[in-house]
Amino acid sequence: MLSRKFMEDFFKGLQQVKRSHPLETLCITWLGSSVGNLSKEDAVEFFKNVVSAVGSTCQLLICMDMWKNPETLYSAYHDQHGVTERFIKHGMQNALSCIGYAPAEQNADSWTYEVEINKIFKRVEMYINFTKGLSLQKHQLEIRAGERILVEFATKYTSNSIKDIATNSCCHLSGYWGNNSYYTCQLLVPGAHALAQCWTDTDELFQGIPNWNSKPIDLRHPYLFYYGHVCAFTKLKIVGGKEASELDNVFSRGMDPDVLDPSHCHGHPPVPPNWPSREALINYVTRTRMMILKETAKGKVTTRILSIVIEHERMHQETLIYMITQDRKMSFEERRVGIRKLPLLISQKGLISMISMDHNIEPEVMIEAGDVDLGVDSWDLTTFVWDNEGPVFHTKVSEPFLVAAKPVSIKDFLCFITQGGYTNQNLWRKEDFAYFSENGFRCPATWSLVENEYFVHGFDSSKHWTEVAEEPVYVSLAEAEAFCRWMNCRVMKEEEYQRILDCDMNGEVVGLRGGGWEWTSTHFYSFPGFQEMAEYREYSTDFFDGKHYVLKGYSDATHKSMRRDSFRNFYQRQYRYVFAKFRCCRSVLS
To answer: What is the β-pairing status of strands 183-190 and 58-65?
Structure first.
């Protein structure tokens, strides 16, 4: 247990540190053994007081010992070498000395050390049993023979109790490391600070957008919608929708229409005849954010809800980067003259001579067949996951397969283009070929063909293709599958992606997780036993439509907090704007 004097000194020290670093975010570390000496209620109060001492611009790195099998806990605290027993008896001797009881009178040899596993409070309790009793006449205290004193307890934690502590401490559980069966380390960030960090990143993106009414991707709303949408969504989840304003309703949900027939789309508010002005929108967001912070300060917003609204906004930050990249592309092309809409063909020998295929895109890494576990069980996790990430689905890869060591590069894909890949309908699904042909799409969405030269655009750069020739190409699934047919290969399945992670111990398959989302040919559907999340029912279910496909990994634009192996992104196969790569696979037996 921690003394009141210790607590007071600790909080005064924190205040002094904050005064010395008023503009910096403090990271405060608290070790598991000390957290374990507090009850769960006292731990909540302690963390609240830490935040109160230094303000919300802090983060708490908390280590915790997890609840285990009672036999395991008992043997740890009643070890065969008697280490813990000596420690506890020594502590009792010191306590008695502090109140004037002479060490010579203590007769510790007659004391019995006892350990109990309290399953109700999830803690280990360590007692001293005074088998011969003890008389403390100075303090008029009589301990009868056989009575015992609780010297120390060690609280153990579960995933749910950690989430409860985060929620009751008004914190967002933003990071997690460790093993739920042994020890874990959590990063708690005060809810207000976690939201402010996210909002700052959104504001920085919009500060770089000159025209908020621009709509660089036709299948999406203009920029300004998303500035209002992420705020309206957060308000709906944290404050509720009982007194929704007109703008709350306008911005309540975005759209993901059918790429092949945009007149078909999931439910969303009608597009207003006129969007609000930039000034009106900024005023709306400012007012709404203040309302959200006020509600968060009440301490009733769960860490789960905080995770939902923050990850939702982080996802939109990435899709905004896709839009900004298209804006960059259009501006780049407008500044150039002599733009050609058709690609160079094989007759352009000057260009062809510069391009040679990389042998690393050939499927050469053997992955054996075997069992695979997809997804996670959310009830067993400390951190947040979306509903479609679970429950665990036990499946298998039934046949061995070959996979390319590297994703297809920009140079590799340019070979495909210059050899007529976009005009050879035998490489494409019928509906894909029609869509790309009718819209004049003859290269990836992030490319420009200007004066017979290809340029590749990113969020903050536009480069000649030769400068980025070895980087992964970003394409739609339709384009990826056409390339793979050209190579007599295919795109991997979701279970094969996981099998590679499980089996590629030597790292032969390079850049599988990062450098761009990894396309799979797996339809986006639920795992058996799926349960939609009550807080956001439509997040997944609206897109179990047979038109969306699973992407794994992450791109450079994906926020670090969302780079987890269980995450399942999903897009339509013809959607061209995702920072998504692919690699060639080939079945061995078929």
So the answer is: antiparallel
Element (H, E) at 563: none
Strands of the sheet with 516-523, listed across from one edge: 569-572, 548-554, 516-523, 580-581
Q: What is the 3-state secondary structure (H, E, C) of 79-109?
A: CCCCHHHHHHHHHHHHHHHHCCCCHHHCCHH
Residue 544: pLDDT above 80? yes
Mean pLDDT value across residues 110-126: 94
Pairwise CA distance, residues 162 & 354, whole Å = 57
Residue 515: closest CA among 472, 481, 551, 544: 472
Report the DSSP beta bridge partners of residue 472.
409
Q: Is the pLDDT assigned to residue 546 strictly greater than 70?
A: yes
Has residue 554 got a pLDDT over 50? Answer: yes
- Residue bearing tokens 């078909």: 264
More confident residue, 413 or 351: 413
DSSP 360: G
Task: State pLDDT tens for residues 74-103.
Answer: 999 999 999 999 999 998 988 888 888 775
Q: Which two tokens stand for residue 424?
A: 């050879």
Element (H, E) at 212: none
d(CA 479, CA 443): 9
Peptide bond into 270 cis (omega under 30): no
The burial of 134, by beta-carbon neighbours within 10 Å (0-12 exposed, 13-18 middle, 19 or more buried), is given as: buried
* Residue appearing with tokens 């490391």: 177
| CA–CA gap between residue 498 and residue 34 (Å, rounded) | 38
CA distance 52 to 171: 12
Tally Cβ neighbours within 10 Å of residue 522.
20
Summarize the confidence of residues 530-536 as an average pLDDT.
95
Q: CA-based angle 229:232:236, to the nearest 5?
A: 135
Q: Where is 147: in which H helix or E strand?
A: strand 147-155
Q: How many residues comprise the chain?
A: 590
Rounded-to-integer distance, Cα 523 and Cα 565, Å: 18
SS3 164: helix
Taking the whole predicted model, whether its pTM rises above 0.85 is answered as yes
Number of neighbours of residue 34 by Cβ within 10 angstroms:
13
Contacts of range 235-244, beta carbons closer than 8 Å, 24 or more positions apart: 235/288, 235/291, 235/292, 237/305, 237/308, 237/309, 237/535, 237/536, 238/292, 238/295, 238/296, 238/301, 238/305, 238/309, 239/291, 239/292, 239/295
Average pLDDT, the chain: 90
For residue 58, what are its two tokens? 């802090």
Q: Which helix (H) or strand (E) holds 123?
A: strand 123-130
How high is the pLDDT of residue 485?
Answer: 97
Grouping H, G, I as helix, E, B as strand and the rest as coil, residue 12 is: helix
Residue 339 scores a pLDDT above 50: no
Strand runs (DSSP E) across 418-506, as ranges? 447-450, 453-457, 462-464, 490-491
Contact 90/96 with Cβ under 8 angstroms? no
Cα–Cα distance, 495 to 374 (Å, whole number): 7
Residue spans of beta strands (DSSP E) within 291-428: 363-367, 370-374, 393-397, 401-404
